[in-house]
Write a structure and sequence with these properties.
With about 325 residues, the protein is an alpha+beta fold. Helices cover about 15% and strands about 45% of the residues. The chain contains two helices and 19 strands.
Length: about 325
């Protein structure tokens, strides 16, 4: 009896294997990591994205992926970088996709729960039939849209690339342009940048303070939950040479990063690819006023004289 059971099981296994080959069955494991899409700190107009990896155990052929989003009230906010239907190429055991959510500016506050269903099946079935085994997995979704705005960030890195010294433009002086590159991780739920950046420039010995610089104008912003670089631009009059810069980065009134970096200033016109301050917009406020007086002052004076002359003529006629 035992002998019969052994041979019966062996025959059944061989038959099922042959049947699977004939019908292009794929008995391969399929999974998702991580199996969730969550964020508790969203607000209106927040943007958030998360990487999800699709994993197959035996990718012997192309597979077609179908994704269905079921998050009541938030279906239209969520998108996938690869789309809702795409092909997993054979040979790829792991395949990353990115889930994105963009909260509308008029979104009702509250928690949005649901799931994203991912199914995988053979991409090319033979003509005349064949049964495809569709594998599936689920991504749990939990998104909270709150009234509270969170302004918080972490400074990951500060750099000051080489730059050129200032130069003469007509009768004016255009300063050198220091670019302070700040890598930020946005921990909040709104686009943000530092409130202020300060630089103290010292000579090579670190004993003599040459300039104290500050800017609150940082145009770039880092999107919520992202890490990116913002640039703080500061004008300087220091000449060609090597110096030390002590930097401070502010969040509101608090210093969140400080340190010192060596900086190298090159002679004007010698640094490939460098773009400094140019023309009128590179002038200081004082020089801009002087420039406007020089250019437009005579024109204003001429119109004023014409106005006075015409006024006198009108009086004589009377």
């Amino acid at each position: 009896m035992k002998k019969f059971s052994f041979w019966f099981l062996a025959f059944l296994t061989y038959f099922l294997f042959f049947l699977m080959l004939e019908n292009n069955f794929v008995l391969a494991g399929f999974g998702i990591t991580p199996p969730y899409f969550r964020n508790d700190n969203l607000t209106r107009e927040s943007y958030y994205e998360q990487k999800i990896t699709l994993v197959r155990g035996d990718p012997i052929e192309d597979s077609k992926v179908e994704i269905k989003i079921n998050v009541p009230g938030a279906n239209d906010w969520i998108s996938i970088d690869k789309g809702n239907s795409f092909i997993l190429p054979k040979g790829e055991k792991s395949f990353p996709i990115t889930l994105r959510v963009k909260v509308p500016k008029d979104a009702p506050f509250g928690r949005y729960k649901g799931n994203i269903r991912v199914t995988v099946a053979p991409a090319n079935l033979p003509e005349g039939g064949g049964v495809a085994i569709a594998l599936g997995a689920q991504i749990d979704v939990d998104l909270n849209v709150s009234k509270q705005t969170i302004f918080d960030f972490l400074v990951k890195k500060v750099e000051i690339p080489d730059f050129e010294e200032g130069h003469k433009w007509w009768i004016f002086y255009l300063p050198g342009k220091i670019t302070t590159k700040i890598t930020l991780e946005n921990l909040g739920n709104i686009p943000l940048a530092p409130n202020k950046v300060q630089l103290a420039i010292y000579d090579h010995s670190k004993k003599n303070l040459l300039e104290s610089l500050e800017t609150k104008k940082i145009k770039e912003k880092v999107l919520p939950f992202k890490t990116n670089v913002v640039n703080a631009y500061l004008p300087t009059k220091i000449k060609q040479g090597v110096y030390w810069a002590q930097f401070k980065v502010f969040k509101d009134k608090d210093i969140v990063a400080e340190g010192e970096l060596p900086i190298t200033v090159h002679q004007y016109g010698t640094l490939p690819g460098y773009k400094g301050y140019e023309g009128f917009f590179g002038l200081t406020l004082k020089d801009k006023i002087i420039f406007c007086l020089i250019i437009f002052g005579p024109v204003v004076l001429i119109f004023l004289l014409i106005f006075i002359v015409l006024k006198k003529r009108k009086k004589k006629k009377k």
